[in-house]
Amino acid sequence: MTGGRDKKKRIIFFIVFGLALIEVLIHPELCLASADGDKAHPGLGYVLPIWSIIPFIGILLSIALCPLLTPHFWHDHFGKVSAFWAIVFAVPAVSVYHEMAIIPILHIYIIDYIPFIILLWGLFTISGGIVVTGTLRGTPVMNSVLLLIGTVLASWVGTTGASMVMIRPVLRANRDREKKAHVICFFIFLVANIGGALTPLGDPPLFLGFLHSVPFFWVTKAILPHMLLTSLIVLALFYLFDTYYYRREKSRLVVPESPAEKVPIKVEGIYNFLFLAGVVGFVLLSGYWKAGCFTVMGIEVFYQNIVRDVGIIIMGVLSLRITPSKLREMNEFNWAPIMEVAKLFAGIFMTIIPALGILQAGPQGAMAGLLVYVRDPVHYFWVSGSLSSFLDNAPTYLTFFYMALGKLGMTEAMVPGACALGSVTGNPEFVSLLTAISAGSVFMGANTYIGNAPNFMVKSIAEEAGVNMPSFFGYMFKYSIPILIPTFILVTFVFF
Question: How many structural domains does the chain have?
Answer without folding.
Answer: 1
